[in-house]
Structures are given as C-alpha cells and as structure tokens.
Amino acid sequence: MPREAPGGSPRILALALPDLPLQRILRARASPPALAVVHEGAVAHCTPAARAAGVRPGDSLVQARAACAQLEAVPLEPAADRAALRALAEAMLALAPAVEIASPDALLLDASAANLAYSCGADPEAALAGRALALAAALGYRGRAAVASGRGPARALARHGGAPLVQVPPGETGQALAALPLAALDLPAQVCERLGAVGIADVGALARLPPGSLVHRFGSAGVAAARLARGEDPSLLVPYQPETLPEEAWDLDGPVETAEPLLFGVRQLAERVAVRLAGRGLGATRLRLTLKLDPRGEERLVLPLARPTAAASSWLVPLRERIGSLRLGAAVTGLRLAAMEVAEVSPEQLAIGDRPEAARALEAVLARLGARLGGEALFAAASVDRHRPEAAYRATPFRAGAGRENGAAGDAGGTAAGPAEGPRPTRLLAPPRPVVAEGEGGRITALRLDGCAHPVEALAGPERLSGEWWSEPFDRDYYRVRLSDLGDCWVYRDGGDGRLYLHGFFD
Amino acid sequence: MVRYAELRCKSNFSFLSGASHPEELVDRAADLGLAALALCDRDGLYGVVRAHARARRRDLPLVVGAEMTCEDLGPGGGGGVLLLAADREGYANLCRLVTEAHRPPAGEPAAAGADPDLSAAGGWRRERAGLPFLSVAERARGLFALYPGTDGEAVARLREAFGRRLALAVARHHVAGEETRIAAARSLGRRLGIPVAVVNDVHTHHRRRQPLQDVLTCVRLQTTVAKVGRRLFPNAERTLKGPEEMARLWRDFPEGLEAAAAIAAECRFRLEEIRGEHPLPPVIADPALTSPAAGPGPGGEGAGAPASAPAGEGTGGVTGMALLRALVRDGAHWRCGGPPPEEMERQLTRELDLVERLGYASYFLTVWDVVRFARSRGILCQGRGSAANSAICYVLGITSIDPVRMGLLFERFISAERAEPPDIDVDFEHERREEVLQYVYQKYGRDHAGMVCEVISYRARSALRDVGKALGLSLAQVDRLAKLVGSRDDPGAVTPALLAQAGLDEAASPAVRQTLTLARALQGFPRHLSIHVGGFVITRRPLCETVPIQPAAMPGRTVVQWDKDDLAELDLLKVDLLGLGMLTALSRCLGLLARHRPAPALPTATPHPTSLAEIPAEDPAVYDMICRADTIGVFQIESRAQMSLLPRLRPRCFYDLVISVAIIRPGPIQGGMVHPFLRRRDGLEEVRYPYAPLEPVLARTLGVPLFQEQAMRLAVVAAGFTPGEADELRRVMTHKRSHERLEEMRGRLVAGMAARSIAREDAEAILRQLHGFAGYGFPESHAASFALLVYASAWLKRYHPAAFAAALLDSQPMGFYAPHTLVEDAKRQGVEVRGIDVSASDWECTLEGSEAGRAARPGESPALRLGLSRVRGLPRSVAAGILAARRLAPFASLEDLARRARLSRAWLSRLAGAGALRSLETGRRRALWKALAVGPGDEGDLFAGRLPAEPDPELPEAGAAEEMAADYAAAGLSERGHPLSLLRPALAGRGVLSARELQRMRDRAAVEVAGLVIVRQRPETARGIVFVSLEDETGIANLVVMPDVYERFRPLVRGASFLRARGRVERTGKVVNLRVRELLPLALAPDLGAHSRDFR
Known about the structure:
The complex is a heterodimer of chains A (507) and B (1096).
Chain A: E1 11-16, H1 20-27, E2 35-39, E3 42-46, H2 48-52, H3 61-67, E4 72-75, H4 78-92, E5 99-102, E6 106-110, H5 114-117, H6 124-138, E7 144-149, H7 151-160, E8 165-167, H8 173-178, H9 189-197, H10 203-208, H11 213-229, E9 247-256, H12 259-279, E10 282-293, E11 298-309, H13 312-324, E12 332-344, H14 356-373, E13 379-383, E14 393-397, H15 403-406, H16 414-417, E15 427-440, E16 443-449, E17 452-467, E18 474-483, E19 487-494, E20 500-505
Parallel strand pairs in A: 2-4, 7-8
Antiparallel strand pairs in A: 1-6, 1-7, 2-3, 5-6, 9-12, 10-11, 10-12, 13-14, 15-16, 15-20, 16-17, 17-18, 18-19, 19-20
Helix pairs in contact in A: 12-13, 13-14
Chain B: E1 5-6, H1 22-32, E2 36-42, H2 48-58, E3 62-70, E4 79-85, H3 88-102, H4 116-119, E5 130-131, H5 133-138, E6 143-147, H6 152-162, E7 166-170, H7 178-192, E8 196-198, H8 210-221, H9 225-228, H10 243-249, H11 254-266, H12 320-336, H13 342-358, H14 361-376, E9 381-384, H15 391-395, H16 403-406, E10 424-429, H17 433-444, E11 449-457, H18 460-470, H19 475-484, H20 496-501, H21 510-522, E12 526-538, E13 549-551, E14 558-560, H22 564-569, E15 575-580, H23 581-595, H24 620-627, H25 640-649, H26 654-663, H27 666-670, H28 674-681, H29 695-698, H30 708-719, H31 723-734, H32 739-755, H33 760-772, H34 780-799, H35 801-810, H36 819-828, E16 833-834, E17 846-848, E18 863-865, H37 876-888, H38 894-900, H39 905-913, H40 924-931, H41 960-971, H42 979-989, H43 995-999, E19 1006-1017, E20 1026-1032, E21 1035-1041, H44 1043-1048, H45 1050-1055, E22 1058-1068, E23 1071-1081
Parallel strand pairs in B: 1-2, 2-3, 3-5, 6-7, 7-8, 10-15, 16-18, 21-23
Antiparallel strand pairs in B: 3-4, 4-6, 9-10, 11-12, 12-15, 13-14, 17-18, 19-20, 19-22, 20-21, 22-23
Helix pairs in contact in B: 1-2, 8-18, 12-13, 12-14, 18-19, 18-21, 23-34, 23-35, 24-34, 26-34, 30-31, 32-33, 34-35, 35-36, 39-40
C-alpha cells in the first residue's frame, strides 16, 4: 500500500495516455491515415492528418466527413481500451508495488517507495517516471507523466500539465494545479457544468472561492472539489489485481515411477483447484496437468470434461484414465494442475424420475471415451429449425446430462412455432442418389437404383418442401415409398430438374 | 366447367401477413375465372373498399368478410373463424364485431395512447384481437361462418349460433398431417350434417410473391430469413389457384369445391349497398341549440352569424331543409347588412333547391353546428377548399368569401350531374381544435362519429430497411442502403455505382440485389394506420355498422378503418375539421390588441382591430410591404419560393394575393404556368388563348390556368368534356391510385382537342398544363379563403409588428421559420425585444411600454417582452406560482422570489440560466451562483428560500458570445443580437458581405457571404437544385446550390448550422440570389443549437 507522504497525500506517479483509443488503433497500422475514433456520431479522437484536414474532436461525423472526405471512422471500443490499460498495468507492476487503473486513459503508480528502488540516481521519482514512460513506449504507447502528492492532482497534472514530465514537490500541489482547466479535476459532471456556467474556468478560480460556498451548493461533492482544488487528496490507490485462473502445484518428495503416489498428488491438487473454482461459481471444462520429469523436461496432458464442473471427483475419472495409460520416459518429480478453460456452473434442479447416479455413470463413460478417442469423436444430433431436410440436423458436442436439450428431434424451438413437420427418415443419404421410375399405366411399379430395379409396394405423398430462395433455392415433392427389398424409403422429385432422388431410409 | 370461389383470402391489409394488394388478388381471381372471392383480412375490413372498386370494374363478385379470433372457441381457446357477410344486417354485425374486437378491455383507457404498438392500429405487433364467443353468437344474424378447425365442441357451438349458415373449411397444401385433418373435418361434417367447403388459405395472388411473403413473416417476427426456420410456410401453395387446378387437387372431393361456390352465392351482400348511405343525424334535435349563439369570438365572424332558427320552427317537427332555409335567410341579411341583392338571392335559391334535391341539408347543418360551437367558444375558424364556392356556406358563416362577388363556380362544390357528396373543410385554431373534435364525439357519440384513418404505406426507405434487416444485412449496411434513396425513389433503380459509393457490393452479395428487388415490391404495402389530419365521418345509422371503428394512438380519438379515398369511393360524407396554426396566431394577436386597445375616446394613428372583420381592407402600405417580400411570418407567402416571387408579382389588390397563394404550388409549377404568367403580367409576352372560346375561362389569369376550376373548364371547353367528366378528371389527377385512368382520359382529351382543330403545339401545352395539376393545385375558392388570412396577417405585421411577433412566437410550432428568425425579423421591423424577466414576463409574450411591465402609452410603440414559456423545460405550473406571487407584490430580491414562489433550486437555476432573474441580480452568472445556494423549496424546511450568509465571490463577467449562447441554450433565441454580429468584424476583415450588402451588389459579381442556416429545401419541382437561406444580423441571403455543387458539399449543405458561401450574384429585377460555387464551414460560430427548416 502506498505510504502516506508527510503532507497527508501519498506520492503518486500518474501516467496519462493521451488519445488512448487512437494510440491503440494506430499501434497496428504502419502510416497514420486520416482517421477518427467516433463515439455516438461525433469525433472523439483524430489523427494529425485528420486535424490537418480540418477535423476536430467534437465535430459530428457529418461535419468531419465534410472537412475530410477520405476520413476513416472507427467506432470507440471502451472494452478494448480497458483491456489495453490492463495489459499496461500488468507490465507496470514490475516498476511499482501498486498500480491503479484510472479509466479511461491513465495509470496511477505508487511512487512512495521510489527512493528505495531507484536510489542510485539523483532523483528517484524522475527515474521511476522515466522508466514508466520508456516501458509504455516499448509497448507502443506515448504517455505523459506527473509525480505529485495525491491521486487526483497527479492525474490532473499528467493529463493537462502540458509537459511530458511534471514533477511537483510536496506542498506545492495547489499552485501547480491553479492554471489547469476545471475539467482536469474530474469533478461530477453537474458540478463542473454549473461552475462553468458561473464563469469558474480554472482550478485557481475554484480555489479562490469563499470557503464553504461550495458546500452550500454542491454538498459533499463541493467539499471534495474545494480540497482537490487546493491540492489535497489523501485517498489511497486502488491496486489492480490481475485475474487469473487457479493453478496449483505439488512437489513430490522424491522421483516417482508408479501411478499410486501420482494419483494421490493429483487428488490433492484437484481438490484445491476445485475449491477455488467453486468459490467463484465456476466449473472447469478443460484441465491441464503438467508432470515435471526427472531430471528435466515435462509432460503436459490436456483433458476435456463432459460438462463444466467444480467437483474434483468427476475430474479424477479421466485423470486416472489418462495417467493409467501414460508411458513416461522418466520419473516424475512434481505436478501442476491448472483450469485452462472454465464456464459458469448453475445449480441444477433434479426432476422426478431423474437418476443422478445414472447421469454420473454416463458422464464417467463419456469422459472415459473422450479421454481415449479424443473430444471430437463424441457428438449428438440436434434438430435445426429448417425446412430443408438435410439441413434440419447438425452434430453437436455430446454433453452428458444435456439430454433435455439434445432430446427428441424438433424440440429445439422450431416445430413448436411453425407448421408440423412430417415423419422423417432415420438415415439420410449425402448426397441423395438419383433413381429412375419404371411404371405402367401411369403407375410407378419400380425404382431403378444403380441399374438395379426395386419393386414398389406402396407410395404416399407428396409432402412439398421449397424455399431458401435467398441462398440455394430448393423445391421438392417428397414421397414415402415402400420398396420390396429395401423397405421404406424417402424419395423426392426435384422441381428444378424434374428427376427423382432417393434421400433416405425409414429404418 | 368446374366452379370454385375462394373463401379464405388475406391481403396485405392483414398487416405483414398477406403479400398481395387487394387489387392484385381481385385481378388474379378474375383472370383465373373464380366464381367469387371473399376477402377475409385479420380483424379488419381495411382493404375491402379497394378490392370492391376493382371487383366492380372486373365484374367479380366480392364477398366481404374477416378472420376473427374467439378467445374461448376450440381446444385451448383462441380459435379462428371466418365470418362472411350474407346480407346488409350481417355486414352491420361484422362491422360491430370487428369494432368490438379492437375495443380495449374494460378498465383500460379508452384509447391505448401509451401503448406504441397500438399506433400500428392494424395491430400487426399486437396479439390477435380476440372476442368472447358469446359476442359472436349474439351477432350471428346475417353472417356465414366458416370454421377451419376440427374441434367437435366448437362446431356444435357454432352450429347453435349460426344454424345452417355454417360450414367447415379444409385446405390442402401438401404439408405433413393435413390429410388427417381433412379426413377428420369431412367425417365431422358428415356426422353433423354440416357442409365442408374447400379453401386455399390464400396469402399471395401469385407464387412469385412467396419470397415477399417470407420476408413479411420475418418482419412480423422480427427475425431474419436465416433464423426464421420452420416458422415460414414450407412451400408456396397458399396462393390463388384457378378452378381447374383446384379440381385436380381435390379430385377426391369435388363436393368441397361446389360447397365453396354455393356459400359464395349465398353471401349476396356487396359493398355497393352502402354507397351514399349518408343521412346525417338531424342536427337540431336539441331545442337549446337554436337559442342565440354565444357572443362573438375574437374572430368577430360570429357577431351576427345566423344562430337561431325562426320562432316556432326550432323545436320539434322541423325538417332539416326548413331549418336550413331559415338559417340561410337570416344569414343573408347578416352578410349583406339587409335584404340580399338579387344576384345573391338567385344564387341562394338555386343552391338551396339543389341541396334539397340531393338531400344534403343535414350535411350543411352539421358543419354549421360545428362552426357555431367553435364560435361560441371563441375559437377562430374559417372554411376552406371548394366550400367557398357556395353562397350557403358564406351566409351560414362557414366561409368568408362571397362567391357571388368573386364569380366562383358553384358546380365545383356540388353538381346534380356528379351526384357525389360535397366536401366542406373548416380550419380551426390548431391549439384548440381538440375541443371541437371532442364536441363532435360527444354530440354524436362514438358509435356515430369517427375520424378518418390514413394508411401509412411502405416507402422506399422504410421498405429497404425492413427487407434489408430480414435478409440479414447489418444495421450499418441497411442504413447506408436506405440513405441511397429518397423516400419516394424506386429502390429498383439503384445502380451498382451508387451501391459501391455506399460500400455495398451487389455482385459479392446477392442479398443486396434481393433487398432492392423485394423492397421495390414492398413499396406501397400498408404498414400501419394513422389518423387523417381532420376528416370526420358522422352517420345517422350507427357508424360502426357501416365501417369498423378502432381506437387511435392518440388518447380520446377513434378512427374508422377506411381512408378518405375509400370513403370517396363509396360516396360517404366526411367533414374535414383541420387545425391551422395561423388562426391560432391571429386569434392571439387580436386578443393582444384588444387588451392593449387605448381608451376608445382617444384617436389613434393606426386602427386597433379586435376581430378579422375590423381589419381595414386594401391598404396600399400593406401591399408595399408584400411587394418588398418583407413577409416573414405572413401566412402562405413567407416561404423562400414565395418571397422570391413577390417582387416580380407585385400584388396590389386582394385578387393578386389569391393568385400568389395559388401560383407557388406543384400544379402550376410543374405545368410550366408560372413564368408565362409573370411575363404576361409584365407585358413581356402577349396574352393569347390557344382556342378562342377559352378566353372567358382564362381571361382573369391572362390566358394561363392557375386554378383547379380553370383546369376543369379547360377540359370542358377545349376537349368537350361534360362538367361531371371534368370533375372526374380533376379527381383522377389528384388521386394517387389511378394513373391508368388518367392515361385513358388523356386519350380523350387529345381526341377532343383535335376535333376542335386546336393546333398541335397548343394542344400539347394544354395537356402539359393539365398534367401539372396532377401534382397539386388550389381551387380558386380555396386560394381566396387563404388570401383573406394572408391579407389579415400581413396587415397585422405591418401595423402591429410587436403583437404579431408575440402571437407567432406563442403559437409555435407553426409556419416556416424558427422562433429565433421571427425575433430577428421583428427587430428589423423596429420592435424592441426584451428578454425574459420574472418581474415583467407573463407565461406568454406580452407588450410593454417604455417602462418594464407597464402597458404602452398612446402613440408609443410597444416593446415585445418574451414570455416565461420560452424557458425550455419550465412547467406552466411553476410559472403560474411566480405570477401569482408577483401579483401580490413585486419581488424584492432573488431570495424573496424563491421564498414566495416556492421555487426549488432547480427551477431557480433554470430561470437564472435563461437570464430571467435580470431584474433581481446583476449578471446571469451572479444570479446563477446565488440560485444554486438557495435552500429547498419546501415550505416546511427551515432553510426554505434562504440564502447562506457568505462573502460575494469574484465571478468574471461573461462575454457577449457566451451570453448569446446561453440565451439560445435556455430559450432557443436571444434578444441581444444576432450571433453573426459577434463575428462581423472578423468577417468584414476577410471581405465577407452581409445580407444587406449582398442586395446592393451588381449582377454576376463574385462575393462571399456567411450566416446561420435557417432554410434548406430541395423541392421536387426544382430538379435537384437546393435552396439554402443564410440569416445574419442584417437580413437573409438566398443561396442557390446547383446539383453538382450539392454533391461536392453534400454533408455541409445537409448538416452545418453556420456556413460561408462563395459564388456569383444573380439578379433578376429586385430578386437577388447567390449562385454558390463553394461552401465552407464557419468554424468560429458559437454552438447555439439553432433550428433550420430542412428537407428530409
């Protein structure tokens, strides 16, 4: 935690990244074109080329395009900008004990201990600031730094101070802030707007207002504004803590060559990781077990799970399976288990007739199959809400316990709303195979498939299916035909070429 | 020969369910040789009149029906049933049932104003309007029910209600499971002895409409074709099929086809039966109505207008006609100030006889009654349109133009030959029209009176948006695509080059081309219902037995399911009760003058009229002002186009105003009549007539037809049309639905003129002129009615500019210009405009003398004090509190105001921000600073209205630009000056001219001007030219932006609030324009948020 400076406000290094959204976009571009970052129809940031053409932040996109016809407009992406700040913050953690993300475009570093870490130079705070600026530059960002007492003042000076590096000795913060515009203080919008309306344009003017007058008008926000204007900000940094997925390691007492002690270690790890996941309401869908080999090297196993779960017991089945089938060239000295991929787990309500033990058994079988054959070898057929028969099903990953979703064809929301679908064959041929009708007296007597005639015993239909004119139109009349030797078949006459095709079998 | 009638058919008036127009269905049914067609849209009869009109021409029996939902019929409720009208009684019951289905459930507000979905009055976003079965059963007489289900219990209940007028309906579309349903229905029919009829549940008139049908389904379900899945029909079989095809399809059940034809034959009701069913309710049922009307309103027209029936005739037993004759007699005395002259007497007798013969007495009386009501409430009103051709309307006080003196044609209004109902339109003050509408509802009841609906149809843009979204284009793409076309453009005509400009590639994405093709087909489809501007249908028989009525989106309003063309098709009477902003402004202005009238004993330099009738006529100074085009705010002649015409037209008398109102209309402009008329008037072109007998018709307008009546007479005289045919020509010309009919008449015109040996080029000129009127033209009577208001408003502007400006400001929104332009204009008229001030302002604008808050002394020009209503967001109740407190004593200080008017800090700050505390505190900033510290507004609070004791802070003075920007932000205008005056030194330094300087420049001089954009227009008649008006502190500069320049500076023309323009001066007489070569943004201008009048 930042140490309190003698003046009451902690020493803070603020690193502002002007036009961060623009900088982030331009990092990936070679030559900066006339480009503007646009938010709600107005220009938020623009490149020098765009400025040279007359585009100004605040212009509506229409105005900006009027000034510069070639202007490329990119929408503001606050999430991407926050991610960029987080990445920078992680890097800055190498320089300072605590880093705060001051959205939307600044980082605050604890500079209280700069004299300890950078004592070799004449000015440790300046050295810290220099390192921070250099690190940002190495990551592709141009920044401005300010070292001052207090979070608010440091941030204001970095953003609005004008110089690449501003350093304010303790006790002089008020004077340093006086020339800054009111907006530098990040006051609540209403306070800032009203102060602007009465002509208070800079921090100095705010500081000169009669003591107490702001309290009458803005309550506690007024008190804070008055203190900030005088350069007082005793608030503490809110340190950034990177979010990571749990990972646990286990060092074995000595090199191990049998499965039994390994499994013991794995069970310990699984329980620890599982507890950490469960606390966050998450379940693992993919685990990674790393085995440290003697004397060096390692073996990594990746395990897909049948469904997201934070129950260590259900991880152990596939883990045991995989460990049992391992052929290692060396003894194992240590284990590390990480949750590679997680998903939220919601508690499940069992229905009457559900047999949880059966579900668990199925899960175990599936996990085992998955572990042996690979995750992709298992799939289920799910119905798709389409009229085109060959597109009305698709393969989905098989998830035990997902029986209700996988369930019978047609439950996936389609048929309930649309017209009823007729009986569908259990097998479809891909592609459908052409057949030729043979008949006499206007009656079809046989269908010839690959040169071989199959007598027709019965015929029903048609069911007419057409549509998808927007992509690949189809128009078919389907008949259910009983062939004496092939059983019930699904045959259609194509409206396009007028020919007959065998499309599937009702087994 | 197989006979088949289609009994289940939906048009696009089932709103996003059917994919064909009613006319298309009728045409196709006739082509296929169907025995009859029943149009059964969901919950409505919206499309039946169109279908009926086409069926009459194609000689196809059209059965009227609707598909209704019974909440409690069939398994699980919500069973649908088709109801077909067998006779007039059945039709009345059908209308009542549809009306009932749309009625909001008890306990809910009468109109679902808060529910935006109901604004789609067709209900396409709404669930089906369901009815309890009991209601249907009660109204089963005269209806034939067709039940498409197979539920035995439902069938039994239906049979109990409908008896032998019940059949089961079966359909075969080659989909799974239908054979089981067909078999079940047939077996049920056999068991219960109920006929089973074959239907095809038609949604399209042709299979090729299936893609559009699918798209509509996606729009309805708010999804895309990729996601909609099996909610689309599985094939295209729900289309109209001919008897042979149906016979093949139903080879196993020919009786079903026969049953369908037999049912159609049994449903004998045709819409023709309600044609002209227009007897209005007797007006004078209530003897109280015949008592003398309330005193004169501000319009003064009511001052002697006939208000009472003759003694002994007003009560009981008096027929409409007798009453009308009596009222006309009284009215003629009133209008003529004694016995009417012989000519007037003759005209009235002729009109009364015709009215009696045609049975329109109650119609005149109804309108007279509405006008009488308005006058009794002091609501200014005036008839417009062709009603002004009628002397009866004039003497009843409905219109203000004497048709006898003006020589207007009564036949334009009613003729025995045409046998079609007259059309009386009356304008009311727009802010008080609702009182009149509610009076009509209240007097006749909601079952007898309803407003006419307006069908809002898909236009190019909306069609592109919906189709594009349904086909899965991204919102950004749909937006770009929609922006490529104007609202009335043809989406099919978008070229690949244009698409590429919008970043769309037709070759790469078939969806783009499909979108354009389908959007083209969707154009013109009904989208939802809205309310017609003022049309009312009133009937003696309950209206809901003639046409279904449903709540409109606006609270308190109900609309019928037909639009004005539908009503005209069936000759049903409607009265147009319209709102007119200028009447509101005139009423306000006269009210202000009445309040500020000097003592009657004192002579005044300028007259002080308190009614329209008191305004002195034909004042040369007023015409001088009009000739200078100093007409901002004046009714009808304030637009940019009018203002550039006036110096050339130089109106010097009332009839010149009539011409100037009529001439700037799409009709005369498109017909190329404007310039020939001006040249002839200036003596630059000889007045000649293409055909000598046309001279009496066209003499008044120098041989150029400017009015609708002249176009009609032209057809009569030059092409041998009868007056009735000529009127049909007029209707066809203005009727958007009948372009084919126009072509037919065109042929007859050519033949007629050839027979009269009219030279070919003259004949072509006449045709062009007539075709021009297809755009839109005014009847002379209408132009004359409007010209009265033109003169009245011009007179008030000339002699009482302060009162006039005040009235215009308080009647917003209306007219052509934004408030800041009106204020700038008032200042140029020499009016002192004073800012909003809590110590002096009322809610509305007021007039003051030299002393703030006091009336002007005789001889003193009053100043205009802006009202508190101009403070954006200030509720009237807060202002009322301030005014009430001020009446007790003037405010001594800001604290005093806060305490006595109980103003919260928020309202006080808003007033301070608008500069309204100027009399209590020096400087807006200091006022705001203090306002922010005032204690809460609650009476009980210890600190209510108190200011803390504190030293005064040093607040810097605000600059002029900031003051002005604050004025605009808080009130939309500034009394301080024009924003351009702040920039003038800098602009002058760069050689930029002011608007006044521009007026003095020689022709073709290269100049630069700058200003605030107040008008941007791209009239359809101007072939892509854009007109922009720039306002500065000296006046208005008119820019002409040619299409190529517009394309180069499109975003600036469309978006910028302030502009600099470079170009050359174009001078035609006194009219000066700047033909623009280059446009630049005016970057220094403060952001005022000013409004301009823009094209869309």
